[in-house]
Structures are given as structure tokens and as C-alpha cells.
């Protein structure tokens, strides 16, 4: 098992790597803005699941760097899996990488894009770096060492203690439409959003509001900051969340299952169903909010098996 010193070394390495990758993304955005390149393609024959040459180039760059510096470590990446490489997850140190989280934003020139670099050891996320190069925000954390914005601002932003969580009606909830637009998935997600927002006298939770950044990693970092109270998503992947889970936890938040079946234990990062609650004074108030979400989350399938047009229903 890695000690504190090892984790610090891995963290510094990941921060440096994320900065280099971020520069590639920033340069590609400028090229794109000047109208000279970066076509996008649909993955899995799904026109709402996009990939660009930059996603592929950044993943290749990160993968190569990691294999030179840590040749015995394993690698799981979004674009590597899209090429059909089978995901094998073991107790060995494993880097879990999304070269661009928020690819749809990137394609449109919207600035909410991030490179996400996480490390698991013994299957537990222990190091996480999420860098948003177009906004110059770098989020980082290592297990037991706190979470930071731009390496010096401790998260959550509310110090010394975050405000009480209260009731779901007093929360901002972030979520996403996701890339699966089949009626059985999108209708349930829209109904869930409706329930979160609807008036209490009409059986809703009447939360303060909903936010969607287009990036699971950035959504989770807003929870780590404490400026968003809850994040719920079904259908994103381990590379979207592995790094940011460490950042949320080190900022005092919890990340549990986003399925309709309540479970207060740490989330299975391969489940494709995530629920995060921001830091608060006590875990009971976090679990109270989680329970209010579990009470209304519908059963939504999120398979891992690709079929033409998306994933097995
Ligand atoms: C995106 C996720 C987002 C989800 C999108 C997509 P990508 O990741 O972060 O939360 O709703 O469908 O999966 O594809 O930009 O890396």
C-alpha cells in the first residue's frame, strides 16, 4: 500500500501532467475558434456521444507519460475503452483518465471542459486532479491530505465550517441529460428533474434549482467547493468521476450510489450511478439529503455493454 509520501509524489506528477494536457486542450480550442480544425465523430454510433482528435491525442499523451514514469501501473482511459480494449480493474495502482470531460462543450467552444486524472490503489480512488484549462481552475486532492483549488485554496470554499445542509428544498442539485436519449432513460431523467423542481404541494421537492455543466468532473468539483449541494448522475463513467471523487471526499463530501436502491457505503466507481453530497457539519445531515434523493431516484438501466447506437438496454 502506498504511504503518504508516495501519494504526494503521485499527486505532484498528476498535477504536472494535467497542466501539460490542459495546454494541449487550450491550444486546440484556439485552433478550433480560428476555424481550422478539430472535427468530431460520434462514438458507438450515438450522435450525442462525441469524440474529437484532441480527446484521442490527449489520452495518448497521458498514457505514454504514465507508462514511462510508472511502467508497472495500470491504465483505464475513455478513448482506450472506446477502441474496444477490455477494462480490467485490479488492486494494482491504476490511473483512470478522461482526456476531455465535457467533450460536447469542447466541440461547441463552451469553456466547461476538464482533463481528469485519477489514481486508484486497492480499488480505492486515492489521488485526483481535475484541470479546467479554459477557466484556469485546477482541483487536486490526495487521500488524507485535503482538497485544493489552484494548489493553495483549501476546499470547500466555506471555511472554517460549511453552512448546514438543511432540506433538499434548500439545495442546488446538479445533474446531466447524458448521452443516452432512449425514451426509457431520458424520460425518467426528465421526470426526476421535474420532481426535484416541482412545488411541494404538488408532490415535488421544490429544490432551489438545477445546474448542468456538461462535465461530471466539474459538477463534482462544484460540490467539493461547496457551491452546489448535490450531484446526481446515471450513465457517466469511472473516468468521468474517479479523480473528482477524491476531491469531493477530501473536501468533506460523500459520494454514494446514485441508484434507486439506498446504500450509504462508498460508491462502486464502475456502477455508472453516482450521488454526491457536499461537505457539512455532520454526516447525518449528508445522509438525510442522500435519503431524500434515493426516495425519488427512478430505476434507470446503465449497462456497460456496447451495442450499435449506444449501450445494451
Ligand atoms: C460526459 C460526462 C457528462 C455526461 C456526458 C458525458 P465526456 O463525459 O461528463 O456528465 O452527462 O454524457 O459522458 O464524454 O465529455 O467525457
UniProtKB/TrEMBL annotation:
Claim: DNA damage is one of the keywords in the record: no
Cofactor(s) in the UniProt record: Mg(2+)
Top EC class of this enzyme: hydrolase
Keyword Magnesium belongs to the record: yes
Listed GO biological process terms: inositol biosynthetic process; phosphatidylinositol phosphate biosynthetic process; signal transduction
Residues binding Mg(2+), per UniProt: 78, 98, 100-101, 240
EC number in record: 3.1.3.25
Family the UniProt entry places it in: Belongs to the inositol monophosphatase superfamily.
Protein name: Inositol-1-monophosphatase
Natural source organism: Circinella minor
Amino acid at each position: 500500500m502506498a504511504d503518504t509520501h508516495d501519494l504526494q509524489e503521485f499527486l505532484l506528477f498528476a498535477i504536472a501532467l494535467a497542466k501539460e494536457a490542459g495546454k494541449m486542450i487550450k491550444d486546440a480550442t484556439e485552433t478550433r475558434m480560428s476555424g481550422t480544425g478539430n472535427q468530431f465523430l460520434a462514438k458507438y454510433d450515438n450522435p450525442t456521444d462525441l469524440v474529437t482528435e484532441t480527446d484521442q491525442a490527449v489520452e495518448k499523451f497521458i498514457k505514454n507519460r504514465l507508462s514511462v514514469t510508472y511502467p508497472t501501473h495500470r491504465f483505464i482511459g475513455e478513448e482506450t475503452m472506446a477502441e474496444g480494449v477490455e477494462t480490467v480493474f485490479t488492486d494494482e495502482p491504476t490511473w483512470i483518465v478522461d482526456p476531455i470531460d465535457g467533450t460536447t462543450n469542447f466541440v461547441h467552444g463552451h469553456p466547461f471542459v476538464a482533463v481528469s486524472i485519477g489514481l486508484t490503489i486497492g480499488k480505492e480512488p486515492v489521488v485526483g486532479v481535475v484541470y479546467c484549462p479554459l477557466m484556469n481552475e485546477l482541483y487536486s486532492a490526495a487521500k488524507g491530505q485535503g482538497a485544493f483549488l489552484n494548489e493553495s485554496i483549501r476546499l470547500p470554499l466555506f471555511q472554517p465550517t460549511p453552512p448546514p445542509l438543511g432540506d433538499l428544498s434548500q439545495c442546488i442539485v446538479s445533474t446531466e441529460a447524458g448521452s443516452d436519449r432512449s425514451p426509457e432513460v431520458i424520460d425518467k431523467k426528465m421526470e426526476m428533474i421535474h420532481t426535484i423542481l416541482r412545488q411541494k404541494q404538488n408532490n415535488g421537492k421544490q429544490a432551489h434549482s438545477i445546474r448542468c455543466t456538461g462535465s461530471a468532473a466539474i459538477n463534482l468539483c462544484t460540490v467539493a467547493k461547496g457551491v452546489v449541494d448535490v450531484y446526481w448522475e446515471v450513465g457517466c463513467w469511472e473516468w468521468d468521476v474517479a479523480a473528482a471523487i477524491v476531491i469531493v471526499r477530501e473536501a468533506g463530501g460523500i459520494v454514494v450510489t446514485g441508484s434507486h436502491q439506498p446504500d450509504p457505503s462508498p460508491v462502486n466507481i464502475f456502477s455508472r450511478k453516482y450521488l454526491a453530497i457536499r461537505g457539512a457539519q455532520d454526516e447525518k445531515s449528508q445522509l438525510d439529503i442522500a435519503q431524500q434523493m434515493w426516495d425519488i431516484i427512478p430505476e434507470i438501466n446503465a449497462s456497460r455493454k456496447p451495442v450499435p447506437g449506444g449501450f445494451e438496454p
